[in-house]
Amino acid sequence: MTNYKKSGWHFNTGGISRRAVLAGSATGMAAAALGIRPAMPQSSDPVKIGFVFPFTGRLASYGESAGPGVDLAMKMINESGGIQSLGGAPIEVFRGDDQGDAKLASSEIERLVAREKISGLIGVFSSTEAVSIGTMADQYEIPFLSPAWTTAKAFTIGSTYSRTFNLTGESFATGGVSMLKYLNDEKGMNAKKVGLIYDGSEYGRGVADLIKENLEGSEYTVVQDLPYTAPITDFVPQVLRLRDSGCEVLMAAQYYQETVLLLRAMDSLDFRVPFVGCASGFSDARLPGSLGSAIAERTLGAPVFGPVAVSDLVPYEPLQAFLDRARAEGYTFGSDGLDVNWFVLGAQALFIYKAVLEAAASRDGKDINDTLLSIQIPRGSDELIVPFYDPELSWEETGRPLNQVVPYIQWQDTEMKMVYPPDIAAAEVKL
């Protein structure tokens, strides 16, 4: 049982255990085999949640993995009885494709508000969108809950309805600097000259600025500060500048697609230095497949380290229970399947809405947002499947999530190994 606290009173809702999710899967498959359609709650109309994400275009891979995660979470919630405080109302999710573009996101949000009468939104995707249109949430009095954007600038736009639960740029930056210092101080890496490369958008620039701020006045020197404008197809000019700078270690904040292209360019120029990624693209299970086996063996052995928002390598019970259910449903992950990070982040958004709707006992956007502002979802509860909050997930009024921690993996023999922090490490760092 998970205990939710709001305005001095408590609302209790049953959690979904690992045994229960597997049993639910088995029951559902047996019913399907007999031609029996599982009963859906009929006591109330659905609670409508919008989901605006890139499903086509350059960033489509994010929606392609997050979408099925949302779908599975919706199935699990509805199979377990829907929203009990609303008479067993099921959740229904309506998608909008923004291609990672703020103008498209704005029009899709307006459509979902006007046509579907949504009570809340999963989104927006990018940091640029969060800064430019985040206040639409306040305009419509509908909460925006993002599994994606990271920029600290979005906490300064004056919105009390827009928030993220992804690892923030602040967490990526401080986590990357902590990893850099750990490698030098504890593992003998001896690399103090930093080459910094990043997407020049709101997201990348925000992380890079925080990295520089955290390194200022220390024994580390940023010898190359290199933003670029995406989309980009050839990183050879950037790699030449990094190589010529004399950097001894690279740090980067960029999307997965550019990470693949950057590593290919480094391989073509035979440029190898340790790489501390400061974005989830460096811990994406699809990297070896996208690079090809030969390039992956050479480049990922540089060594390359990446922050982990979500990984099946993390020994966190609620996450493992959810992934067990996903595999029982036929989902596959890795280079030939979905990205587990974005699959879980998508699902987490809907599980948060489930918890909040139960506590709010309302479909009204303002009531839901008020509950989001006050709720605390503890680490270890079945509704908190992401492993990077301790002791609980909660938010400041600005939308800033509290209590984040950042684990790191290292690519070893083209496989991810958890190496930091030491208390959850499954392998030793290899330099």
TrEMBL record:
Residue ranges constituting the Leucine-binding protein domain according to the UniProt record:
46-377
- UniProt key word Signal: yes
- Keywords (A to Z) from UniProt: Amino-acid transport, Signal, Transport
Q: Which GO terms describe its biological process?
A: amino acid transport
**One Pfam family linked to the record:** Peripla_BP_6
Database matches in InterPro entries? BCAA_transport (IPR051010), Leu-bd (IPR028081), Peripla_BP_I (IPR028082), TAT_signal (IPR006311)
Return the similarity comment.
Belongs to the leucine-binding protein family.
Entry protein name = ABC transporter substrate-binding protein
Organism of origin is Pontivivens nitratireducens
User: What is the phylogenetic placement of the source species in the record?
Assistant: Bacteria, Pseudomonadati, Pseudomonadota, Alphaproteobacteria, Rhodobacterales
